[in-house]
Amino acid sequence: MRRALAAIVVLALLGAGLVAAQPSVPTPRTYLLGALNLLRAHSIDRDRVDWPRAEAGAVRAAEGVPTLSGTYPMIRDVLAELGNPHTKLLSPLQARAPSAATIKVPSSRAADGIAVLEVPGFVADPDGERRYVAAGTAALRAVEAQAPCGWIVDLRDNSGGNMWPMLTVLAPLLGDGIAGSFAGPGLAPSFWSIRDGRAWIGDHPGTAEVNPVRLTRPAPPVAVLTSRDTASSGEATLIAFRGLGRVATFGGRTAGYATGNEVFDLADGAKLLVTTTVDVDRTGRPYGAWPIAPDFPTQDPETAAGEWLRTRGGCA
Question: 113-154 pLDDT, tens per residue?
Fold first, then answer.
């Protein structure tokens, strides 16, 4: 069930500034064709579909449908042809963000000189973002006070959502500079970076909040834990660490949603999540709709990570 939710709750990787809207109160036919036009114009997988045939078939299947929601099956049939598990239609109920008070937030613990920071997925409103970043900053500060020689970042339960609060929480561990990018056909790369204590997308801050924590031991060794439940922006958070020589990954292969979605609001409150880009790490290596393998596959990643950290300079 968790993996299914990871595929559904995936989201707005490119931020609210890219959300588009359809005209209000369309007919079911207009609504259907509008959704298909968005897929045809923006999907990174659009060349997989014979659009005249697909549109004609969808319109025939929707004849006599009295409601906008009655066209969902036709839209999802075309989504199946695109073949990308990250491109989704969310009903109005599925698209509703949870309340800020109910979301999971980062937590931490430390033992034997090693800090563990658990970073869950994040989907919520601005109040939720403030709560998430504040909790993450407090969790990081609590273990930083013990001057750990190494860090474990646990992404095993990170099923996705908005990546920017996650990266802001992790800014002190990532360090300043380019952390990755989004790339797509005919698009200029959109770079992710860390500076001034928070994550940025191009020239725009990813969060309103800033992480003020500064590490006693800068640029520490970091072990990142992953699993099949690490999905979407959980995978993007993993990718932000890849290419750093002081980082290694442990655990299981990820879910395979290392792509960026543009979010389109539909007239009835549904949302169309359209995969428009792939994630790229700081070295220029692209990812996509396939799982990311860890450096060290293991069923006991925390133990293996601790052993690896103790072989690094500061933890020897």
Answer: 999 999 999 998 889 999 999 999 999 999 999 999 999 999
The domains of the chain are located at 2-95, 103-257+282-315
| Four-residue CA torsion sign, 233, 244, 292, 286 | positive
Q: Which fold has domain 103-257+282-315?
A: 2-enoyl-CoA Hydratase; Chain A, domain 1 (3.90.226)
- What Rg do the C-alpha atoms of the chain give, in angstroms? 20
Residue ranges of E strands in 54-140: 88-90, 107-111, 114-118
The CATH fold of domain 2-95? Transcription Regulator spoIIAA (3.30.750)
CA atoms in the 13 A half-sphere facing the CB of 246: 16
Q: At what angle do helices 72-82 and 51-61 cross, to 10 degrees?
A: 160
DSSP designation for 225 = E
**Mean pLDDT lowest for which of 44-53, 123-132, 159-168?**
123-132
The model's pTM:
0.90
Q: Do domains 2-95 and 103-257+282-315 have the same CATH topology?
A: no
Six token digits for residue 240: 């932000």
Q: Classify residue 233 by burial, with Cβ atoms within 10 Å: 0-12, 13-18, 19+.
A: buried
- 44 residue type, one letter: I
Would you say how long the chain is, in residues? Answer: 316
The token pair at 130 is 């403030």
